[in-house]
């Protein structure tokens, strides 16, 4: 069944999700390993089923990585700093508003002061050492668990 004939609320297989997002299935599996917030339902045999909110989050991640130029590490920091809902909102905007402002636009350098305007790079997470890194990892794990619980409780 083609993605276009399914309801907007229907779950998608990995191939349907990849087709809808215009990326390859192995990219989705890779993103799952790098972004704990992306957690599709897995059924017998390991088959993945993406909920509408999973697709919206994936659209936001795709926008951060492909359109706004974030690295995986930078996108993870963006999610940590702004929350999953903000990234989902980016995913909602990416298809609806082609001319919408990106998160990087807020970092743009004033063009009146320069001959060639540039865009500043997004802030990169600073490597943490020792106990701070452990606390950051614990916080990320707790936020991941919270996101999974919210997703499981939503109808």
Q: Would you kindly provide a written description of the structure presented here, covering whatever features stand out?
A:
This protein has 155 residues and is mainly α. The protein has a single domain, classed as Multidrug-efflux Transporter Regulator, Chain: A, Domain 2 (Orthogonal Bundle), CATH 1.10.1660.10. It is 53% helix and 5% strand. It is built from six helices and three strands; from the N terminus they run E-H-H-E-E-H-H-H-H. Strands 1-3-2 form a three-stranded antiparallel sheet. A hairpin with a 5-residue loop joins strand 2 (41-42) and strand 3. Helix 3 (52-67) crosses helix 5. The longest helix has 24 residues, at 130-153. The protein is globular and about 50 Å long. The model is unreliable at 97-101 and 104-129 (pLDDT under 50).
Chart the SSEs and their pairings.
Blueprint: E1 12-13, H1 14-21, H2 25-34, E2 41-42, E3 48-50, H3 52-67, H4 72-82, H5 84-96, H6 130-153
Antiparallel strand pairs: 1-3, 2-3
Average predicted confidence as pLDDT: 75
Low-confidence segments, given as residue ranges, are: 97-101, 104-129
Q: Estimate the helix proportion, in percent.
A: 40-55%
General form: globular
Order of helices and strands: EHHEEHHHH
Give the number of domains. 1
Content of β-strand: under 5%
Q: Outline of this structure?
A:
The protein has helices at residues 14-21, 25-34, 52-67, 72-82, 84-96, 130-153; strands spanning 12-13, 41-42, 48-50. It has 155 residues and is mostly helical. The protein has a single domain (3-153), classed as Orthogonal Bundle (Multidrug-efflux Transporter Regulator, Chain: A, Domain 2), CATH 1.10.1660.
């Amino acid at each position: 069944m083609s993605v276009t004939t399914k309801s907007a609320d229907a779950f998608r297989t990995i191939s349907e999700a990849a087709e809808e997002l215009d990326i390859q299935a192995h990219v989705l599996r890779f993103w799952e390993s790098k972004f704990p917030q992306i957690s599709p339902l897995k059924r017998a045999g390991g088959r993945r089923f993406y909920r509408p909110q999973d697709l919206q989050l994936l659209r936001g991640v795709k926008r951060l990585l492909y359109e706004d130029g974030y690295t995986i590490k930078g996108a993870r920091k963006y999610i940590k700093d702004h929350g999953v809902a903000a990234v989902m909102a980016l995913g909602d905007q990416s298809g609806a508003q082609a001319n919408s402002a990106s998160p990087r636009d807020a970092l743009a350098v004033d063009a009146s002061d320069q001959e060639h305007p540039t865009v500043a790079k997004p802030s990169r997470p600073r490597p943490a050492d020792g106990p701070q890194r452990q606390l950051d990892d614990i916080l990320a794990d707790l936020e991941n668990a919270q996101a999974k619980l919210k997703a499981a409780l939503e109808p």
